[in-house]
Amino acid sequence: MGRMLNALSERSLELGPARNAEPTGHFRVARDDDGIVWMVLDRTDKRVNTIDRPVLEELNQHLDRFEREKPAALVIRSAKKAGFAAGADINQFVGASAAEIKAALEQGHQVLDRLARLSCRTIAVVHGHCLGAGLELALACDRRIAVSDASLGFPEVMLGLHPGLGGTFRAPAVADPIEAMTMMLTGRAMPARRARSIGLVDAVVEERHVAAAVEAAFYGDLRRKSPSLAGRALGFRPARQIAARTMRKKTAEKARQENYPAPFRLIDLWEAHGGDEKAMQRAEIDSFAELIESETSKNLVRVFFLREKMKGLKDGSSGVRHVHVIGAGAMGGEIAAWAAGQGFRVTLGDIRLEPIGAAVKKAAAMLEKVVKDPLKVRDALDRLIPDPEGLGVAHADLVIEAAPEKIELKHKIYAGIEPKLKEGALLATNTSALPLQDLASGMRDPSRFVGLHFFNPVSRMQLVEIVSHDRISPETARRATAFAAEISRLPAPVASAPGFLVNRALTPYMAEALVLLDEGIAKERIDRRAEEFGMPMGPIELTDQVGLDIALDVATSLRERLGEDTLPAAPDWLTRMVEEKRLGRKTGRGLYDYDGEGKPKKIAPEALPDGSRDDPDMVDRLILPMLNAVVACIDEKVITDEEIADGAMIFGTGFAPFRGGPVHYARQRGIDAIVARMRELAAKHGPRFTPHPGWERLKG
């Protein structure tokens, strides 16, 4: 039934009389028999629509004609299957001065103001993604009709900005002001029906009903919701002041103002000018132009381009349609569920039935949370097939092994499944530490063996390390990279080496935190200082999340393979905790104790006794060994591209995005300064802080 309903909803886009119109640039324009003009955005130079100066200039030229000819109504929509518009083209701001950006914004506002003032009714029809400047274009129209698959949002905060083409005043004017502000402050997109419930759009229809909805909007049968009492009250500054205090508090729980100023700036603008559209417009333009010149925005824009570069590593199709996952534990179950949610047929095997059942149950909960649409969740679960007999191995295009990290066990698994693999099938391992050369020993065809190292939880961690070895074929590496992109993950090609990139860099961060804890510094203070630097989670809490047993095993293995001078020895008490099964969050007790919801019980650092121990070197002791490991990986060709290394650390560890990545941060801070600082720390704390020789080569 779900598939039938989805098939029925798939119709070619209703473009009115513009369907057969010749493009006049980025638009196709035609008038129907009722005098309604359909203006269809269909950028000739891009796969998706973006809003930039050429589009706005062309729109302005059309408005000249509409003001003269006075059509009965104007309908604006997109001809791109992907959606209405993906927002502004961020490339137009790169390298531009604040004055140039401000002038461009003012011109853009003039165009949208003209659209908003047209004497005829203006109707935006949006489908798919309608984001940023695309949503601001729709907001300049009198009415908004959303197709049921539409997703609307303001992602500018992700770039260290807030909306800059009128969103700050038009969205709160038509929608519930608190909900509109929350959209802008969080950057989260909103599905069409939710957007209707808050007043952001006026109707939600299936594609086949678009023409009828346009007719209803034209004849006035499509009415806006009246503003609520609370919405009207927020037109007055005292009410906004109360709401703004709550917004600041909630925003501060997610981001520090000194690191991410944009959401706090937006709250200030709304509090001061929310009742005055013209004042808000002027303030929006000035603020946007200032923010885009900030280091935070420049670095977050850099992160945007890093993401695009990693997506661009995909070269052709993977050819994978059916995935078989071996091992239904925490990682295997999540990998299987995520792949099924992305449209792949997945069989999930394990030596026992219980883990498979538990994995399917967890998959349902994860998909409901991430996908939300009940029909799509059900379809994904239909694609996730329990396979205790392992029958899927013979039919799969890709087999992913996610068994425990024991090389003998993995060799046994490979020996059993390799003869069953069909021609052209890939065999992958999710190992986080074992050398692929060793895992491939004894294989009949190691050329099709690859590492696909996912990170936990798979549904939130965007990175997949594509791990090569000395006998992998280029085609296997290409297909594995393409598969990672096809399941909406970001691939990072790395060579097989101790810890690959991410674990090698993250382990010194976690290990040094345990040394600081052993020195008597409160765990809450350690975590707070790391979070102040910009890490999403402090190293003590992260160690608990990873699991003390796994953290100890990885650190011990890396120390053995890289040399004792590279990492501090684990404290004896950590080994005792592991023996006592105090393993962290998964057992409810670790370095922290945990409540019933799995949250750590922390004492605020401000509540610690006066004079409790601190270390002024703490942040550098935590962060610089991480940078040192990244430089070592670049120098040793574990990863060959600095930018991909930065992207991998941001998307795989959460390394402070507003700093642009560890290598970028090091270059901004100064390589010589970091090397000198590490030598100071080495003299004070030991050889683990010795700067890698690669720092000198990085300068070249």
Automatic annotation (TrEMBL):
Source domain of life: Bacteria
Listed pathway(s): Lipid metabolism; fatty acid beta-oxidation
InterPro entries on file: 3-OHacyl-CoA_DH_CS (IPR006180), 3-OHacyl-CoA_DH_NAD-bd (IPR006176), 3HC_DH_C (IPR006108), 6-PGluconate_DH-like_C_sf (IPR008927), ClpP/crotonase-like_dom_sf (IPR029045), Enoyl-CoA_hydra/iso (IPR001753), FA_oxidation_alpha_subunit (IPR050136), NAD(P)-bd_dom_sf (IPR036291)
A Pfam family of this chain: ECH_1
Enzyme Commission number, as recorded: 4.2.1.17
Entry keyword set: Fatty acid metabolism, Lipid degradation, Lipid metabolism, Lyase, Multifunctional enzyme, NAD, Oxidoreductase
Protein name as annotated: enoyl-CoA hydratase
Native source organism of the sequence: Jiella sonneratiae
